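As a warm-up, study this chain.
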Amino acid sequence: MRALQSKRIWLLLLLVGILFVFMWANHAIKVRKMTQKIDSLPMRTVCLGRFVMDVPADAIVTYGRAAVTGWDFETLDDESDELFAARLKSKEVELITERNERNGQSLESVREIKTASVHGKIFVYGRQWVKMGTGKPPRTDEIVSIDAYVHMNGVSYKLRGKIHREDDVKELESILARWIPLNEGEIPTHAGFCFDRAMLSGELGAQHHEFAVMFVGLQNHPDLSIALSSIAGTKPGKTFLQREAENSTKIENPSRFRTLRQGSRSLNEIPGEEVLDHVSELNGSELQGFMWESLTKEGDIYLPSLSLEFDTGYGKPGSPVNSSFSDSEALALWDKISSSLRHRPTKENPTSSQSASATP
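Now compare it with the structure written out below.
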C-alpha cells in the first residue's frame, strides 16, 4: 500500500515537473517572440546636443527648452513671415506701454537681427536697480531683461536672458550668428549643438553650459515616457550608483523594488551607469523605471552630464495604470534604444571620439 502511494506521489511530482517545464518553455517562446518583434522594429535617428539616438520610427518626439550661457531657447510656433512680423509688432507695442521700476519707459532699445539663416529683433527692457553689498552707501548695479524673437524655416523662437546688462546683447548676437535651421528629422554632418529643428554651429566650450532635453513617446504605449537630457560644464559629484545606494525611498520600501539590472555600462564609449527596476507602486500598479547616467568630465563638451530615463505606468492623475510592457519587453526596448546613444559623427570634428574615450 505504501509502495502504491509512493508511486502515485512520484507520478504526481513528475506531472508537475512536466507541466512546469512546459509552462517555462511556453513562456520562453513568448519572450523570444516579443523580443524578436522589438528587435525588428524600424527605427529613425534623432539629434540632441552633440549626440544622436535611435527611436522607433513612429515615435512622437518633442523637445523641451534649450539653453546656452544663461540664454533660454523656446520654440514658439510654426508660422509664416507675416504672422511673425505681427508677433514682433505686438511685442514692441506691449513693451512701449510698460513702465520700469522707476516709472520710466520699460522698452530701451530694439535691434534688428538679420543673418544668412535667421531674422528677427532683440528687445532690451525692464531695467532694475539692485543694491549690492553692505557698504555705505551701498553699490547699485543695473540689470535689464533681454529677449530675442527669431524666425527661420517657418519656425519662430524666443531667446530670453532675465538678468543681463546691455553689453550682453553682443553675446546674444554672436550666438545668433551660429544659428542654423534644420529640417524636421535632419541630422547635420558638421559640428554643433542640436535642439528643436535648429543647431548652434561649432564649439562654444563647456563653460557655456549647453543644455537641451528631448521627450519620446509611443502611440501604442501611452503610459511610456522616455527623456534624454544633456548639460555640459557641470562639476562631477557623486555618481548615479553612489546616489542610488543612498536612495531613501528604496531603503524605506525595499519590497516595492525588484532590480532587473544594475551596474556600470558604457554606451558607445560614453562611460556611465544604469539602474533598471520593476516597481510595485503604493496605488497597486506594476511598472518599470529604468535610468542611465553618464560619468561626466567638467571641461569636455563631448562628455557632458547625460541622462536617459525610461518610465512606464503613466496615466491620468488619480488613475493607476500598469505598465503596457512585460519586464522582458521593456528590457528589450530599453536595450535597443539606449545602445544606440552615440556621439553625432561630424566631418570636421575628430575630437569627439578622442574625448569620448577619456577617463573622467
